[in-house]
Here is the input.
Amino acid sequence: AEIEQAYRALTPRSGALFARAGTVFPGGFTRDAIMRKPYAAFVTSGQGSVLTDADGRAITDFWFNATSLPLGHAHPAVVEAAERQLRKGTAYFAPTEHELALAELLIARVPSAERIRFANSGSEAVMMAIRFGRAFSGRPLIVKFEGSYHGSYDDVSWSVSPAPERAGSASQPTPTAESAGLAGTDGRVAVLPFNDAEALRSFITAHHREIGVLLVEPMANRIGLILPDDAFLREARALCDQYGIVLIFDEVIAFRVGYHGAQGLLGVTPDLTTLGKIIGGGFPVGAVAGRADVLDLSSPAQRERVTHAGTFNANPMVAVAGLATMSALTPEVFAGFEATGNALRKRLSDLCEGLPLQVTGAGSLFKITATGTTIRNYRDGATANYAWESTVSLALLNAGFLMTPGLSGVISTATTQAQIDAFIDALAQIIAS
Ligand code: PLP
Here is the structure.
């Protein structure tokens, strides 16, 4: 209550804007992703690693638009590319050389990518990847994992954050609707425990005639920002090969863990990869990349083709900003993220030593989960004391640092060592108090 009172005192203008928002947005929100209590700080600008909020406070950003700004806010190269394009028009309903260049860059980097198609969000990319996967395999059922978030498409909005006591057994979870208004799962979606090679094998062996798509987030963000066991991913690849199931890696976030994405880091190549966030340089984006024989199903030469239209697909603003961003993300930058991320996670682990707290993450990503349980799957992560996490997150915001209410964080190339030091000092004080 004290922390919330302090927050309200620091952010009166955000409080007033939130009250106004309540008259136009349901509950004051138009994006679920920022449903912070009592309200999120409204932002007026972002520069490098610092946001300025509506009350004029400087906030060091450790979330960077949900991990989508690897160069920070308003990076000069991105601003320059976008400004130049802005003056030439923002969308043409015609292809540009920029989209071609971004496509070529991504195909060169993503091991599974021979072809690519752009969309406007990660959610759309997942929706299209599933459509391609079902068309290629000729089978309707999607297998996803409990606790994995893949965006807002209906067929993946199952068992993202179910109450464990209402979600069946840990080894055979009951698909649980994440939203009102979904059609049933019947023949469309099955849910399995993450990181359990045995459960995966037994389910696929029994049901392979119906399974068209296996959808995996190779860095499971919502489960607890963990990388899966090697054996689990290798088993997934082997089973998909054996039964002709299309293996999709959702790398909308995970792509930032390495120059060649999570698949490069983990050494397992999917059939399709969904991308988003960082590849758009701060503009709305999604993409599905993968095997030519799968994605070529959308070629006009196909008799029964996969359709995929979109007014703003690969629009030139996204293409130039994405290209400027991705070109700046050299192998050296990824090595820097890895080194800084490792040092940061080590300091956080030292800080959390002896407390019921887990520090996870890879590359530029880090997370603190308030549980004494080592996290290997959703049920482990769901033991967390979320109220503690969100209180700590609000106290951090009072001190001028933005993480998610679940204490997920990320660094960008604009993040300085001094900011990391100040953040860790603030966190140490909050945890101690
Ligand atoms: N897939 C994953 C793994 C994500 O983390 C997200 C968004 O956070 C999405 C898909 C959806 O992307 P978008 O929010 O751009 O629709």
Observations:
- Residues 66, 121-123, 126, 149-151, 217, 221, 250, 252-253, 276, 286 surround pyridoxal-5'-phosphate (CB under 6 Å).
- The domain at 2-62+331-432 is CATH 3.90.1150.10 (Aspartate Aminotransferase, domain 1).
- The longest strand covers residues 211-216.
- The chain has two domains: 2-62+331-432, 76-328.
